[in-house]
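Q: Structure tokens for this one, please.
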Amino acid sequence: MTANTTPVATLDQSRGSTLGRFLAFLYGVASYAIFFVTFLYAVGFVTRLGVPKTIDDGAVSPAMEALLVNLLLMSAFAIQHSVMARKSFKQWWTQFVPKAIERSTYVLFASLCLALLLWQWRPMPSVVWHIESPELALAVTHLSLFGWLIVLTSTFLINHFELFGLHQVANNLAGKTMPAPRFRTPLFYNFVRHPIYMGFIIAFWAAPTMTVGHLLFAAVTTAYIVVGILLEERDLIDLFGDDYRRYRERVSMLFPWRRSA
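A: Here is the predicted structure, written as tokens:
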């Protein structure tokens, strides 16, 4: 009996494993789709173009209420983004979540936190500055969009699909293991260590009309970026060792005309 039933059991396990890998792949694709839609909405939200609710739209709340809600929303995003990216958290988290979908789960949670921020953001419409010249205002808007383009291009320069979890679930579906990470510095990365963050800063600060709410968003996210870089570079040194230390000495952190210490 054992000799006859063992091949059937093995076949059932193989089918179950194949189904699990396929479901993981669908989960990764769905997580990426949610990210991409949220990212596109965020571009319109910040630049005030093409979306129903932007950073300066909506019912105006009392100033302290708006400040508190907005700070809580940004804090929730920052805590999720930083904690789930840490190596120690990943080691604990993958005891419960399959390793193949760990990155997709991170992307999904980050997208949901960002979507919550976009949905619940309270406008603070007092104007800090406003560019009167239509030509100059258009140029500044284009600069903001250029910042977003730098962000997106930089993700493809490293590995866009690995960064957002698709590479992992595709390899898992094919029964392949992920290749070991390699230290590379393509294009923008030869001039600044963090071109993605540089693009975000340009996108957030290049505003023809800067309101108090937009200023709060830009200032807090910039501060978070600096803190995030310190945490991220610690992990990169652990991963790449002297290669990254030499890179950090040679290439500036965020802007090419400022040399790092």
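A few notes: Residues 86 and 232 are 8 Å apart (CA to CA). The radius of gyration is 22 Å.
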